[in-house]
Amino acid sequence: MDRETKKSVLQIVAFGIILYCAILHLNVVWGVLRNIVSLFLPFILGGCIAFVLNVPMKQIEKRLFLKKQKLHKMKRTVSYVATLVIVLGILTLAMVVVIPELVRAVKSLAHQVPVAMAAVQAWLRENMGKLPQVAAIMEDFDLDVTSISSQAAGILQSAASGILSSSFSFIGSVVSGVISFLIGIVFSVYVLVQKEKLALQAKKILYALLPADKAEHAISIGQLSNRVFSNFLSGQCLEACILGAMFVIAMSILRLPYAMLIGVVIAISALIPIVGAFIGCAAGMILIVMVNPVQAVWFLILFLVLQQIEGNLIYPRVVGSSIGLPSMWVLVAVSIGGKLFGILGILLFIPLCSVCYALFRDYINKRLQGKEKGGMKA
Length: 378
Known about the structure:
mainly alpha
């Protein structure tokens, strides 16, 4: 056994021992990882913000600035400011649209709930004779409002001390979260302003630590990952906007209530692939059924129709083609990611599976080409 083989065997054995120890002390490993993540959380958050803002920022730099223009030297600053203005403008517009509609919906619900409860009680009183079982249950279920109110007051008084004692820790966590977010914003600015320099430094580190062929392979994987994640983000946002606009237009034509509010809610929830629109549908059903149950049924039918159009026509063309992942594997990625890490897993696993799919496809094609060349030589 030569020296390189012995070295490889020792590395495998050492890795196996470390992995075995980590599995035995999984709680300790998980605690250490949580501490590391919490320590670097502002910078991780800043990196995520920089990645998201970089998608529209690149398009602004490509389309609005040319080398002959006087603003070319300031393109990075102007592009970053323009990106912030666009993002903040979209968020402000969404809030301006959603908040008044939400207030109106809450007022309507506050008015409809007592009316609905009174209607249910009146129906029960009228049909007590026809439904003896319900009558027996209602007799046993005798509510004493005064007793319930006194018990609720006692529970609130006993819970007040606990809430007061935990309020300081809650305020501390909120302050810590705000500070982390502000540090992340500042860090994202540095990343976006110096992204070419940071990329060059990363390449130098790879070439210094790895052989040239492995460094080039790592760089190609990084470029592929960046391209796939960027395309997925832009495609998902475009698909959500299209779906939300379709609901607003269709609900306005059918004169269903809360068209703008439900359209915005569905657009926001549709950022979660495949399952997000159903969350928006549930919210819309709750809002409409309190106004008119018949219109809620029409809304459900409309949702099923538009969901079929979105799932079969819009999503595969806008998102599926942008990440190069077939619809079957998109469903697999959503199922596995949601099972393991919830919503975050769904958002991460689709582009991650797309990267793995592209790498595996290239590997298979190279193997097939090698076998074809070998067969020709033979």
